[in-house]
Every structure is written in structure tokens, then in C-alpha cells.
């Protein structure tokens, strides 16, 4: 088999998306070692002269842990008789967990001499021209200052109408926003297969494909766990969106050692 050169090898500006499954201990709060490892990887890639932006989930799972709850709330779940319905959305644990997420990244990047900045976005921010341009200009300024922006959805203020909804999509929207060259989606799966390899032993690894090919959406199938959103389908659709501004997407197993450094090296 001929070796495939990673599209990240030549990418100057890279958006890296990491999901809850890789950042938490099976959904139970943040995994500090995973965060430290990610900070190490991104710092190393930045030191190669690349601009890196991190889109990170994990705040809702961390907030759920901080509150002592056992799962992510939905409008349908009851805490107790007196809890107002407004407390039962993901916005409540999100607001607690985002503190922990920001603190963990800030600490780990600072150990490596890298400054971080937090940006919380909603779909409405990106649908409004002035806010879109402000977000874009803030991000580009941060990158020019050598800061690593850490982005998440502002789940506390969103409603169904204005939310991006999942961070694979948010990663692709940010890729478009700053015209990044590559979107790297780190996942706890071994990449894209022709079918779900957990259910189908005949599934074959897809090493390269054209973003937007409808066949990919058929391969990608269903959703994730009670803590994560997304699944392979949102990743494939994110790749299609990223391609609209000319970016290539890599969907890659996030527990592979030195995965980002190896992608950057080609
Ligand atoms: N914004 C959510 C969080 O921080 C995650 C959304 C997603 O997993 O795609 O937990």
C-alpha cells in the first residue's frame, strides 16, 4: 500500500476538535491526563509554526460530575418536584463544567509556555454579520499573537433555534470562519469505516474520500453516548462543510500516540 501524505502536513492553520469521549473518564468528569496530553500535542504543533485552534467539548460532562448527577439532563428528566424546568437543561451543568474545562486547559498550556483564550459561540453569533466578523477578527488576532483559542458552544444561552448543536459542526463552522486549511476531528473510534465496525465485522477502513460524497453519510450511521453528541455522521457532514471553504478534514483515532504531531509531520 502506498503511504498517504497527511493533508495536515502542509496546513498552516489547523482547527482541532476533541469530543467528550476522549476528554473524560467514560463521561465521569474531566480526565486531566487527556487534557495534559492534548496541551502537549497542540503546543508541539504550534512550535512547528502552525496556527492551532481547539474546539473542545467536555464541559457538560464535567458539570454533571460537579453536581453529582449521573447523566446529562434533558427537558424530560426530573431532578425532584421543586426543581424548576429551566434548571433541567444542559445549560446548568455546562456553566459549572466550563469553569473546570477552561482551568484545565489554561493550566496545562501555561506549563508549556502557551497562552490560551476562551471563546463561547452560538449559532446566532455566526448568523449575524457583525458578530460573525467580530468573532473572526478576534480569532485571527489571537492567532497572530500566538495564543491558542479554545472554543465551545455557549450551551447555557442557546435554544434549539439558535444552537449549532454539536461540536463536530462547530469545528467546521470555525474552520469556515477563519479559513483554516485543515480540520482534525479526534475521536474515540478508529476512523471512518464503510459500516460501524463495532457491529459489522466486514467494515473496511476508509483511508481517503471526497468530502460531500453522499455514500459517506450512508456509511457513517448513528449517534453517540448519553454524554456525547455527534457520532460519525456529524463528522462526515462537518467534513463537507469544511470543504466549502477549501479545508480538508481528517477523522482520526485520538488515542493514537502523538497523533497531531505525526499528522503535522505528514
Ligand atoms: N458543547 C458541549 C459540551 O461542552 C458538547 C457538544 C458536543 O459534544 O458536540 O459538553
Offer a quick outline of the entry.
By secondary structure, the protein is an alpha/beta fold. It has helices at 20-23, 32-47, 59-66, 91-111, 123-127, 129-144, 167-177, 214-220, 232-244, 259-264; strands at 13-18, 51-56, 116-121, 148-153, 182-187, 248-253. The chain is built from 10 helices and 6 strands; from the N terminus they run E-H-H-E-H-H-E-H-H-E-H-E-H-H-E-H.
Give a structural overview.
By secondary structure, the protein is α/β, with parallel strands linked by helices. It is built from 10 helices and 6 strands; from the N terminus they run E-H-H-E-H-H-E-H-H-E-H-E-H-H-E-H. Glutamic acid is lined by residues 19-20, 57-60, 152-153, 155, 166-167, 228-230.
List the main descriptive attributes of the protein structure presented here.
binds glutamic acid; 14% strand; globular; six-stranded parallel beta sheet; alpha/beta; 266 residues; 10 helices
